[in-house]
Inverse folding.
C-alpha cells in the first residue's frame, strides 16, 4: 500500500493547541506577549511525517529530535536532523521537513512567538547554521517541556499561560547555555490543583459549582474567590475550557458527530455547546473539523 504523508496523527502523540481566544485575551499583557506558546507536542516514531510551508509560518518553530532522523530545509539550506539534535525555524521563512522513511524521527516540538523572541531566536539559529546544534533532550529540559504539556492539559488559566510565557526564556537558555542548566523541578500541589484534577475527572458529567466546592470542603463563596484569584476564571468557566480542549481533540481525531461529542462532554443543548465552542475557537465545531482536514491537505 502506498504511504500517505501527513502532518499529524501518530500513535502516542501529544499535541496541544492554545485557542486563539486565549491568546487574544492575554496578548495585551506584557508578561504574556513577550514570549508565548501557540502549539506544543511530541510525535513518537512519526512515520510519513511531512510538512511543506512555502510561505513560512507565523510563529517560530523548534524541533528537537530524540530518535530516528529526518530532513529539514529552511529557505534554501537543507539540514539532516538526527537524534540528539535540534533545529529552529524562524517565523515567516519558507521551509519544509519530513521524517526518514526507514527510521522516522521522534521529535519534541513547539510553535512560539512574542515581542522579545528575536534576540534569543537569533542566537539559537546561529548555532543551527554553524551546526552547533547537538544537545541531548534530557533532565531539566525535558522536565520543563513535559510540565508545559501537563499544565496546558489542565486548561488555560491566566496563571498557567503567564507562567509558561515567563519561563520560556529559561527553557530556551538551555539551548544557549546547556552546561549551566540545573534541575529546579517543583511538584507542589494545593486546593486549586486538586480541584482542577477533579474537573478533569468529571469532564463528561453535569456538575455544578456546589459539587466542585464540596470536593474541596470549602464554601462556594470562599472556593470561588480562591479559584478565580489563582486561575483568573470561575470554576465553571475553567471547566468549559477543559471541555473545549477535549472537543478539539475529538473533532480532530475521531469521526464522532458533534451531537455525540456534545453529549459526552455533559451538554444537554448541542446548540449551546456549538456557541461556546465558536466563542473559544473562532469557528463552529463543524468548521473546525473541516479546517483541520483542509490544512492537512494544504500542508501536503
Amino acid at each position: 500500500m502506498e504511504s500517505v504523508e501527513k502532518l499529524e496523527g501518530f500513535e502516542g502523540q501529544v499535541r496541544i493547541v492554545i485557542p486563539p481566544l486565549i491568546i487574544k485575551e492575554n496578548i495585551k499583557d506584557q508578561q504574556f506577549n513577550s514570549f508565548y506558546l501557540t502549539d506544543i507536542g511530541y510525535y513518537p516514531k512519526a512515520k510519513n511525517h511531512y510538512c511543506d510551508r512555502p510561505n513560512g509560518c507565523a510563529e517560530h518553530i523548534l524541533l528537537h529530535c530524540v530518535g530516528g532522523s529526518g530532513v529539514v530545509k529552511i529557505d534554501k539550506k537543507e539540514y539532516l536532523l538526527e537524534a540528539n539534535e535540534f533545529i529552529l525555524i524562524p517565523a515567516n521563512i519558507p521551509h519544509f521537513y519530513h521524517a526518514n522513511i526507514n527510521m522516522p524521527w521522534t521529535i519534541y516540538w513547539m510553535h512560539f512567538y512574542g515581542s522579545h523572541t528575536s534576540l534569543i531566536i537569533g542566537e539559537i539559529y546561529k548555532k543551527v547554521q554553524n551546526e552547533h546544534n547537538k544537545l541531548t533532550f534530557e533532565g531539566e529540559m525535558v522536565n520543563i517541556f513535559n510540565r508545559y504539556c501537563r499544565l496546558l492539559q489542565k486548561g488555560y488559566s491566566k496563571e498557567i499561560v503567564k507562567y509558561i510565557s515567563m519561563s520560556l526564556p529559561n527553557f530556551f537558555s538551555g539551548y544557549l547555555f546547556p552546561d549551566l542548566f540545573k534541575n529546579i523541578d517543583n511538584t507542589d500541589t494545593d486546593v486549586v490543583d486538586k480541584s482542577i484534577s477533579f474537573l478533569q475527572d468529571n469532564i463528561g458529567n453535569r456538575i455544578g459549582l456546589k459539587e466542585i466546592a464540596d470536593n474541596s470542603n470549602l464554601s462556594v463563596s470562599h472556593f470561588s474567590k480562591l479559584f478565580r484569584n489563582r486561575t483568573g476564571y470561575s470554576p465553571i468557566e475553567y471547566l468549559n475550557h477543559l471541555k473545549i480542549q477535549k472537543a478539539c481533540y475529538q473533532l480532530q481525531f475521531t469521526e464522532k458527530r458533534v451531537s455525540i461529542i456534545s453529549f459526552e462532554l455533559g451538554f444537554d443543548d448541542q446548540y449551546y455547546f456549538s456557541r461556546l465552542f465558536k466563542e473559544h475557537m473562532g469557528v463552529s465545531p463543524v468548521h473546525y473539523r473541516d479546517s483541520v482536514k483542509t490544512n492537512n491537505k494544504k500542508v501536503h
Summary: The two ends are 18 Å apart (CA to CA). The domain at 1-186 is CATH 2.60.120.10 (Jelly Rolls). The first strand starts at residue 14 and ends at 17.
